Amino acid sequence: MRTTVVALMIAALALAGCQDKPKTEAPTQPQAAGQPAGHPPVGAPMPGAPAGDPHAGMKPADIPAGVPTKKATVVQTIDADVYTYIEAKGDDGKNVWMALPKTKVDKGASIEYPSDVPALPKFTSKTLNRTFDNILFVSGIKILK
Question: What is the mean pLDDT of the chain?
Answer without folding.
Answer: 79
